[in-house]
Design brief:
The protein has 13 helices and 8 strands. It is α+β, with helices and mostly antiparallel strands and 289 residues long. Strand 1 and strand 2 form a beta hairpin. Helix 2 packs antiparallel against helix 3. The radius of gyration is 20 Å and the shape is globular. The protein starts with a helix and ends in a 15-residue tail after the last strand.
């Protein structure tokens, strides 16, 4: 990092930046943080070291687990209505859905969606909603704005420990304690809203993102891009009222789909369905003036 990038930070914050870059073992992560971490830290100073190795926000209850017994003991203490888990074998893994893991993918989201439908139409004949399409595409490994999670902690632990390349690597299980307002079933209106986003190209998504900061809900819904977006929503839900809350297109929610494929059934699967706030091109973009 150049000195100009860290001159406004304390020595501790500077060390955290350097250490985090050191532990990122993929060049794309290094490039991403070199361009964006300084701006992120400027707004998020409430971070800490764990075990002199990992960077964690202060409000996260982070625990180091070294055996199955310790893991189960921690899980049994968790008591809440909506608990979900996510496991991955690289602790430095960025918690983004696959479509947001590269600029090239997010720029071609609409094209990827349409091309798969054109090439494999028979595989989607049983899809009744935009979410159905995304879930099936996720099953086929197409990058989507869905992030897999599970209701079973041992399933998450399996994914956190199953793919180590060497004995020095660490996996991670993330526990999501979801408040009611973020937990939705697949027929929810906001699920339909967010599931329609992949049908719009990046320029339209950026326009929706900027417009979503408008305070006037009538003004928002009268914009041409929003009208086209509403038309797509009403293809799935003809009775949908012609009114979208602007901020809804930016939200991330937990959605529990119907048990329509074996993977969801076996893993007690659910998804984080991500809105436009996760588009990398928008991470440091100012809202509409």
């Amino acid at each position: 990092l150049q000195k100009t990038e860290i001159r406004n930070f304390t020595t501790e914050a500077s060390n955290i930046i350097i250490s985090w870059l050191f532990y990122c073992n993929k060049q794309k992560h290094v490039a991403y943080f070199r361009n964006g971490l300084a701006k992120w830290l400027e707004k998020n100073q409430n971070i800490k070291y764990v075990n002199n190795k990992y960077i964690v926000k202060e409000d996260i209850n982070y625990k180091i687990v070294r055996d199955l017994e310790s893991f189960i003991r921690i899980i049994l203490k968790i008591s809440s209505e909506h608990i979900f888990y996510r496991g991955h074998s690289n602790i430095n893994h960025m918690l983004h859905p696959s479509i947001n893991r590269s600029e090239k993918l997010i720029k071609n989201e609409a094209k990827l969606f349409q091309e798969l439908l054109l090439r494999c139409p028979d595989d989607f004949v049983d899809c009744n909603s935009h979410l159905d399409y995304l879930v099936k595409m996720q099953h086929y490994r197409l990058p989507t704005r869905l992030l897999d999670i599970t209701e079973k902690p041992l399933v998450a632990l399996y994914f956190a420990t199953n793919n180590f390349k060497n004995s020095n690597e660490s996996g991670e299980v993330i526990v999501f304690d979801i408040k009611d307002r973020f937990f939705k079933y697949e027929r929810s209106d906001i699920v339909t809203i967010l599931s329609c986003l992949p049908l719009f190209d990046l320029s339209d998504q950026n326009e929706l993102y900027k417009l979503s900061y408008l305070d006037d809900i009538v003004d928002f819904n009268n914009r041409e891009t929003v009208k086209r977006f509403l038309h797509e929503i009403k293809i799935e839900k003809p009775a949908f009222i012609d009114k979208i809350k602007p901020a809804d297109v930016r939200k991330n929610i937990i959605v529990k789909p119907s048990k329509k494929n074996s993977r969801i059934i076996k893993q007690s699967g659910a998804f984080i369905l991500t809105g436009l706030i996760n588009n990398k091109v928008n991470l440091y973009e100012s809202p509409l003036e």
